[in-house]
Description:
Chain A is mainly α. Chain A has helices spanning 9-13, 21-25, 29-46, 97-132, 134-148, 152-162, 167-193, 197-204, 209-217, 219-245, 257-264, 273-300; strands at residues 70-75, 81-86. Chain B is of the alpha/beta class.
Amino acid sequence: MIEDVVDSAAIASASTKRRSLWALAIRNSSVIVGGVILLIMLAIAILAPVLGTVDPTRIDPAARNKKPGTEITFRLDDGTTVKRVVLMGTDSLGRDVYSRVIYGTRVSLAIGVAVSTIAVAIGLVIGLISGYIRWLDGIIMRIMDGLMAIPGILLAIALVSIWRAGLITVIFAIVVPDVPRVVRLVRSVVLSVREEPYVEGAISVGTPTWTLMFRHILPNTVAPLIVQGTFIAAAAILVEAILSFLGIGIPPEIPTWGNIMAEGRTLFRVFPHNILYPGIFLAFTVLAINIMGDGLRDTLDPKMSKKV
Amino acid sequence: MADKKPVLEVRNLSVALPTGADRIHAVEKVSFTVNPGEIVCLVGESGSGKSVIAFTVMGLLAKALKPTSGEILLEGENVLAADETRLRELRCTRMSMIFQEPMTALNPVMTCGLQIDEVLETHTKLDAAERKAKIIAILSRVKLPEPERVYASYPHQLSGGQRQRIMIAMALVLDPVLLIADEPTTALDVTTQAEILKLIAELQEGQGTGVLFITHDFGVVAEIAHRVAVLRWGELVEMGPTEQILARPQQPYTKMLISSVPSIHPVHRGVRKDGITVLRTEKLGKTYSGNAFFQKARVVKAAVDVDLDIRRGETLGIVGESGSGKSTVARCIARLIDPTEGKVFLGDTEIATMTAGKLRPHRRRVQIVFQDPYRSMNPRITIGESIIEGPMNFGLKREEALARARKLMETVRLDPNSLDRYPHQFSGGQRQRICIARALAMEPELLIADEAVSALDVSVQKQVLELLDEIRQRLNLAVLFITHDLRVAAQICDYVAVMSKGRVVEYGSAEQVFGAPRDDYTKALFAAAPGRHWEFGKFAAA
């Protein structure tokens, strides 16, 4: 049956291009909606100084607890006065809530990005080692199990009492309990991919272990890690807000959504705007990340990709 | 038999594929009948639409597929026009289906008895005691030992063959007039397959059930079918009594298919016996022991005392059923797993106990081609990169490696210009050739083919087998060929080792092992090969 012809007709007919992950992802409407909201949030964070804000830490005893929409007289450092409408009111120290919420976006996004990047990076390395070097697996995974047993909030409280409260401490406290989740994910991908015949094929042609990991195994973890990373970012933003609300997160001189809400807590019944506006921003940001994460999972997860 | 009214009449059936598929119709204008007490085999290669027909009859078609014309008459009633309620009434009572994979077709968290009970509860008004009596009766009719015990067993407690018997019991408990069997023995070992085929034939003869039997295996066709329908790309190529189709096929496609079926009688190839020994194993063994903390460690001996040797230009086949340890031996030789006992000599070098670092220079000398063409290449890199990876690991420059890859693509009869394509752009047979090219790029002394043609259609299988043999001759390679398919082994092997439960039970030249087997297990294995009495003719394709 074999004729000495080169079998190219069938190849040509099947010449569909492998679509890149990115091209796949931006076709999904959830990814677009979530992504657009996040881009807006990012723009707000970057452009905070030019969005009609004043110094968010500036205290004005004359304009305490003003309701949203009130016009206040604002005295500048050089003695001149300007009239200004406070969009979201002022808090009990007379600080402009609008400016505080807008500046607070910076902290939240920074925490989200930092925590997910660091947790994914550390988890990826440990997961690869754990999945590939079998004798280390048991030891690493028991340590990870131990880390997972520590509640994140309690760990943060402990760390803050040891070190001083600050951005680094908060990031560290949120990263630690997230790392085992990434490790488990990476490890499971490595364990299944290393049994694939193409990995064994690469071993039998003498491919060195490091090449094997980076070329044949690592790329398979990218898609699940992107998805996991978005969910970690959303959770991190929430946890930061909780920590700040409890007064063990970012120090009060830096405005974050969490500590704006914490400071508004006592007068919540009378002046709900102190909690309402940062709450709305927080909810929208977390929602947007989660929507985008869902969309990414739908497009990138190998089990879902058959539909595409 | 033929003068009775047919139980199933498929008239002019067309089923459309969703837009964007490689063809418009999954099934196009197919007509055939199944008479009472008759076994009709639908045979065809993958993608021929045989399973689509079965699912259409049962009304189980995926939503994306739509029957566009024709009718399916089950005892005169058009099931295409029936609504979901009516279909549910018909299933199991008038028509039943058994599937390829008996493990996934049964619910793992329900006892087998209760699963059959569910059928009776839905379709009959019998009380609990009557139902149980009926179930025990059908379990003993499908020849399951200790029906009472099986009734209370969960699927995982039974073997593959027993599970398929449960499926058959469930399908036949209400005496349907039509049984559809979709590759029911493909996932089973050859000896189990023989028993199941015998059982289906007996049961349907006793009850006069019409059977629509779907298979890709001409051995099974020769064994069981009364009439055969050959399908290709959704069209009925040829239909007729088994004798006629197998012995005097009219259509070129049928001729080609039947000619591609390997003969079970070994060909004498006159191998010289003075070649240099490439590989020798001495008492090779692999023991798996689970190190459990709280219970006694489970010890599985996957391979015990395996002694083999292969000379240059020679093909040694290892045949055996699943779990016999044939793949374990292959993987120990390729050092993809570490043997626990014995020695492996590659030329004069002992590699069984070598450390990974020392082993690396010797990796080149043994190359392996795997079973699943869809998983044996990294889907993210081009086939060119896959082929040159090995030579470059051993210091060849990129340009030289690419030149070698282009040459090898010609050797395996693929277009050298397609090196920059990705694996998914190739068919299964083409990918298997690429894998062969990747193995040859290392200029190995020993090529291991681990079920390398088992996942391929029979016509493609033939091409790949011919290619492998041609390469063996041209490069004077030693080949270790692992297969469960006796026909394939008979055609390609000079020597055959039969394995069972981790041990080599018979080892000798192919003529000797196939012609006069001595071991009881080998005899049983050969006796179970489907269609062994039928010599598939070689027809000149018109």
